[in-house]
């Protein structure tokens, strides 16, 4: 007699994320940016449904280097596997340019699927890429090359619920019309969502609305673009057609600020006494890491010797 196989937990998270993103009129999903398992656990414990693993943050965390395309597929996908394994919320990862041509893109999808993440975004920058929020416009690959990568990524999925998000950085160098043309082509190629990277300017909200009106799939937006966008309350995002808002710099910048302040305080005062109220206690730290659950597991299997 045949039995039904249980659904893979990663597939369940992917299906739930797809459903949530495609709910008509729903408020936008907010995805704080993380770069390690500690931050991912914090995001989950704060009640968020999804976390965003920022390539910029991973480059800082693992290499101590700026986001200049130095993190390769093996490094980030193995890191993503560990991060995804420590939380029970969806994880969306930055997959840069897909780490090669269409053959490289296929392996990229396979590696991230196996890592248990919910989805990735692939951008159309020329390699080696640079963080889009650094000064200057980014050079992008030709239109057909960009679309072929997204089509290859969609066809490489073994789990149909895995999210391939088509990202274009072409707006700054080629104009918004070209960015919208690429977003529409990504949709036609089967992308689950589109992500038009924009730099801050007075009309950024109007531009986002134009993008959202031009496609029939969810729109992802980087709130780090700043300006009028950063001033929006999360409850207002969906009014501009935003289905998924990522905050890549929130944790890495807040953590960096706190580390600098704490180290300066220790250097200048010679102790941490006055910092204690701004630090997690040992109990709070262990709670964040799930120590109680680990200890409960140990008690289930007492030493019989």
From TrEMBL:
It comes from Polaromonas vacuolata. This is Carboxyvinyl-carboxyphosphonate phosphorylmutase. It comes from the Bacteria. Keywords: Transferase. SUPFAM superfamilies: Phosphoenolpyruvate/pyruvate domain (SSF51621). The lineage of its organism: Bacteria, Pseudomonadati, Pseudomonadota, Betaproteobacteria, Burkholderiales. GO terms for molecular function: carboxyvinyl-carboxyphosphonate phosphorylmutase activity; oxo-acid-lyase activity. It holds the Pfam family PEP_mutase. PANTHER family: CARBOXYVINYL-CARBOXYPHOSPHONATE PHOSPHORYLMUTASE, CHLOROPLASTIC, PHOSPHOENOLPYRUVATE CARBOXYLASE.
């Amino acid at each position: 007699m045949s039995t039904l196989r249980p659904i893979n937990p990663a597939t369940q998270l992917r299906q739930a994320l797809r459903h949530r993103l495609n709910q008509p009129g729903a408020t936008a999903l907010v995805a704080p940016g993380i770069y390690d398992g500690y931050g991912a656990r914090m995001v989950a414990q704060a009640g968020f449904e999804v976390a965003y693993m920022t390539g910029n943050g991973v480059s800082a965390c693992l290499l101590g280097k700026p986001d200049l395309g130095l993190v390769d597929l093996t490094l980030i996908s193995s890191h993503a596997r560990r991060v995804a394994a420590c939380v029970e919320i969806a994880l969306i990862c930055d997959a840069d340019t897909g780490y090669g041509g269409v053959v490289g893109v296929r392996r990229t999808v396979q590696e991230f699927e196996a890592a248990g993440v919910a989805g990735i975004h692939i951008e159309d920058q020329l390699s080696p890429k640079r963080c889009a929020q650094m000064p200057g416009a980014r050079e992008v690959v030709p239109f057909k090359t960009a679309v072929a990568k997204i089509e290859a990524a969609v066809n490489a999925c073994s789990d149909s619920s895995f999210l391939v998000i088509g990202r274009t950085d072409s707006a700054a160098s080629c104009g918004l019309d070209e960015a919208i043309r690429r977003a529409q082509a990504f949709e036609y190629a089967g992308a689950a969502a589109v992500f038009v990277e924009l730099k801050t300017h007075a009309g950024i909200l109007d531009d986002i609305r134009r993008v959202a009106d031009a496609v029939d799939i969810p729109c992802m937006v980087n709130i780090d673009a700043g300006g009028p966008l950063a001033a929006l309350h999360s409850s207002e995002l969906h009014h501009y057609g935003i289905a998924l808002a990522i905050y890549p710099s929130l944790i890495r910048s807040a953590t960096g600020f706190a580390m600098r302040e704490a180290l300066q305080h220790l250097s200048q005062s010679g102790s941490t006494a006055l910092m204690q109220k701004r630090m997690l206690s040992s109990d709070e730290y262990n709670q964040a890491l799930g120590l109680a659950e680990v200890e409960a597991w140990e008690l289930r299997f007492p030493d019989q010797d």
